[in-house]
Amino acid sequence: MIKLLRLLALVLALALPVAVTMTLVAPDVAEAQQPPAEPDYDDWDTLAQKADEAVEQARLSSPALEELRAELAGWRDVFVAAQRINGAAIETAQAQLDALGAKPEEGTEDQAIAQQRERLTEELATLRAPRQRAEVAFSRADGLIKSIDTIIRERQARELLELGPSPLNPANWSVGISAILDTVGKVGTEVSAPFQDEERRADVMSELPFVILVVLVGLLFMIRSRFWVERLVRLLLLRKNTPLQWLVSLLVSVGEIVVPYLGLVFASAALEVGGLTGETSELVLAVLAPAFFIFLVARWLSVRIFPRIDQQRLPLQLNAADRRAGRVYGAFLGLVIAIFYFIDALAEELEWSTEASVVILFPVIVVAGLLLLWLARVLGRQGTGTAQDEENETYRSRLSKLLARVLMILAVISPVLAAVGYFKAATAIMLPSLLSLMVLGGLLVVQRIIGELYVLATRHRDGTSDELVPVLLGFLMVLLSMPVFALIWGARLTDLTELWGKFMRGMSVGGLTISPSVFMTLAIVFTLGVILTRFLQSTLRNTVLPKTRMDAGGRTAVVSGLGYIGIFLSAIIAITSAGIDLSNIALVAGALSVGIGFGLQNIVSNFVSGIILLIERPISQGDWIEVGGQHGYVKDISVRSTRIETFDRSDVIVPNADLVSGTVTNYTRGNTVGRVIVPVGVAYGTDTRKVEAILREIAEAHPMVVINPPPAVIFRSFGADALEFEVRAILRDVNWMLSVHSDMNHEIARRFTEEGIEVPFAQRDLWLRNPETLVGPKTGKGWTSGEGAADEASPAKRSGSVHLTDGDVGAEADPDGDGR
Q1: What crossing angle do the helices spanning 737-755 and 688-701 adopt, rounded to 10°?
Q2: Do residues 18 and 480 touch, judged by C-beta distance below 8 A?
Q3: Axis crossing angle, helix 552-577 with helix 516-539, rounded to the nearest 10
């Protein structure tokens, strides 16, 4: 019946894997959470001696060893709890002893202190004695459990490698046929017995119409209910396939399992009520019910994984023909698993011989191997319709192809081993492979459910499979299914319980115990600390600081500083609350700090510079600064860098060390008053005093220019092309510098035009050192060349130079455009 329990646990795991995982905690472990103050070591010694003898002789059967192991595991949990005895008293005594300090190496110690130290040492030794005894007993129990596990594993390995009768031996065929005929004969005898007994015949005949009616109804449900439910599901999915409709249709489709199973239950109950069953037939019906349930679940999963209707999100990217083949192969594999379980359980209950079981089950294994091969071919075509090359294949398609190859290998190995005579090894390969496929199908359905629920919650369908939340939940479901896979492939429940116990107790690294409780305490306390810090920051930012005279940059600095302090204190409090002693990792941290210091010195420098910026505040959020040739407004100051938004709306990230150690120009620090300089040039011969008066009028008329101090007009110099002036004015807001500059230029151009003042353009003189080397004078269509031409170029030749303006150079020097 162990296999029955395992298969039933598997079926439940398809719907609730979390429940299966929670059952891994043994009941005796839960009972051991409240141990007695002091274990009864006399009873323990008796059990331990018995276990020592059993391990040494190794004569007990495996079930007996399992029972003995369960008792030892219960005692071991008691000893784990006993190691917490006198915990508070030990901490108090140790604290008092630490307060006395170390005993002086030289000189004498005060007598009262010495007596108190001696008394506390003796008290501490007395308090620790129960703990030490529990630790010794725990070590003994743990060692015995490991020895029993070793014995059981060795026996399992020997059983798998045991060579038994071959199903191909004709001598064994008669044994298998006899077992089948004998079972069928017993069932037939039990069904016909009531009709042959005169006393029971009347009662059976009176109940027979009702029994026949119920059996027919049950058979109708078993055969036709699936088509009824499928028709209802298709009606639900004919319209727009929304997440809610898909979830409702999935819930309705569960009727493909429930209704036929209820039909079998009703039919079996009617046969028993009608008195048509006996001991063997009742056993057959009892074994038939879970086998039929397994078949229904497998058929339901095959329809969900290979749906008939083209949906928006298919579990596997297959075309309609491959999905149809997948449904057929999946349903027949479910039938094979059901038959395998039915025959194996019936053989165990009816105590068939090994030869009979081997002969009867061998055809089932061969058929299962063929179905696995065909299904593997279908899975190998996953994604071939959408991925054209290796690079475009999805992770699921690559995993499906790898699974297909593994299934092909297992489908060949298992029948070959069974034919040779290693039937247990063949069964240990084939049956777990089939059950694993069912679990994988269940995981695909669960992941689809998670995706549809996420779409229903977020109202966003595109890219749902790539979202973080569905991926993490799917990964969590895969982790929770690991115990189920372990049970399928031969792991013992006690092995999983052992792993769970070690996980809950944690592991010790350098005197530091890491356990789930430690992680939970760390996460909860740190999260609460961060939430409280964010609440205080929000209160300061929105309620307290706006009522002060502090500027925006100062308020930002206070809020940021509070955030860093709060996170730091939250981490310290969380580590302390979890019971982690930082002194245990102080040496490791000290050794790593040297290498980290060299590798992260720039980051540390920027971090310290950020703290300086937040405290001294030479720049604040919203300031217009210039650093490294970049102009812009300060948008954010963090502990590592400062973000500046330039005037072309691009972000520049400046390390804080550059702001502290480099030269920074802050145009708006303290106030926004600043100066604008507008250069102006006029032609030679212009009245300079008139120009000065016009420029002063223009500057004083602008609304952004302050009157005190008044704007100034400076006659700078005699330039190469113009008389150069500058308008210098103080602005109320330097942020408007460019706008004021542009406005003044517009007004200067208008006034100069009205007053007839010329703004000159540049002129250049070109002197030719050897004019005789140039081409001759220009004729009707161009320049002539040769000696005569040079002689006729008398002006250039006599003076040795040519005076050209900029326009002459462009128009006459190279009329052909050939560069000569």
Answers
A1: 140
A2: yes
A3: 160
DSSP letters along 311-325, please?
-SS-SS---HHHHHH
In the block, residue with structure tokens 């973000």: 643
Cβ distance 143 to 119 under 8 Å?
Answer: no
Structure tokens at 589: 């941290």
Q: What are phi and psi for residue 498, nearest 5 degrees?
A: -65, -45
Q: Which residues contact 385 (CB under 8 A, 6 or more apart)?
A: 317, 318, 319
For CA atoms 774, 779, 780, 785, the dihedral sign is negative
Tokens of 490: 């031969």
| Partners of 631 in beta bridges | 626
**Nearest Cα to 566, choosing from 588, 605, 594, 533?**
533
Tokens of 474: 């799917």
Residue 760 CA to residue 757 CA, distance in Å, equals 9
Residue 269, C-beta contacts closer than 8 angstroms, at least 6 positions apart: 214
Counting Cα atoms < 13 Å in the Cβ hemisphere of 772 gives 6
Strand partners, 778: 783
Tokens linked to 267:
């039919």
φ, ψ of residue 512 in degrees (nearest 5): -110, 125
Q: What local confidence, expressed as pLDDT, does residue 16 receive?
A: 36
Backbone φ, ψ for residue 245 (5° rounding): -65, -40
Q: Is residue 313 within 8 Å of residue 338, measured between CB atoms? A: no
CB 27 within 8 A of CB 73: no
CB proximity list for 81: less than 8 A, separation 6 or greater: 32, 33, 34, 35
As a whole number of angstroms, the distance between CA 470 and CA 476 comes to: 10
- CA pair distance 313, 465, nearest whole angstrom: 9
What CA–CA distance (Å, rounded) separates 745 from 679? 9
The strand pairing partners of 641, in sequence order, are 655
Q: Contacts for 587-595 with beta carbons within 8 Å, 24 or more apart?
A: 588/510
Rg (CA), the chain: 46
Nearest to residue 764, comparing CAs of 796, 817, 809?
809
Distance between CA atoms of residues 620 and 582, nearest Å: 38
In sequence order, the 6+-apart residues with CB closer than 8 A to the CB of 669 are 618, 619, 620, 623
Reported residue count of the chain is 820
Task: List average pLDDT for each run of 10 residues in the chain, which is 820 residues long.
Answer: 37 36 36 55 91 88 89 89 85 85 77 86 89 91 91 88 88 90 88 78 81 89 87 75 82 91 90 84 90 92 83 73 89 92 89 90 92 87 54 63 86 91 89 89 88 81 66 86 88 83 69 73 89 90 83 74 86 81 61 63 75 76 83 82 85 86 80 87 91 92 89 90 91 87 93 89 74 59 43 40 42 40
- Given the DSSP bridges, would you call strands 630-637 and 624-627 parallel, antiparallel or unpaired? antiparallel
CB 438 within 8 Å of CB 297 = yes
| Exposed e or buried b per residue across 322-346, where buried means at least 16 C-beta atoms within 10 angstroms of its C-beta | bbebbbbbbbbbbbbbbbbbbbbbb
Answer whether 809's CB lies under 8 Å from 766's CB: yes
Q: Is the pTM of this model over 0.70?
A: no
Alpha carbon dihedral 283, 288, 291, 296, in 10-degree steps, equals: -160
The Cα–Cα gap between 228 and 235 comes to 11
Burial classification of residue 158, based on how many CB atoms lie within 10 Å of its CB (0-12 exposed, 13-18 middle, 19 or more buried): exposed
Q: How is residue 543 annotated by DSSP?
A: I
Helix spans in 197-277 (H): 198-238, 243-253, 255-273
**CB neighbours (10 Å) of residue 727?**
24
Whether the CB-CB separation of 715 and 687 falls below 8 Å is answered with no
Eight-state DSSP code of residue 773: G
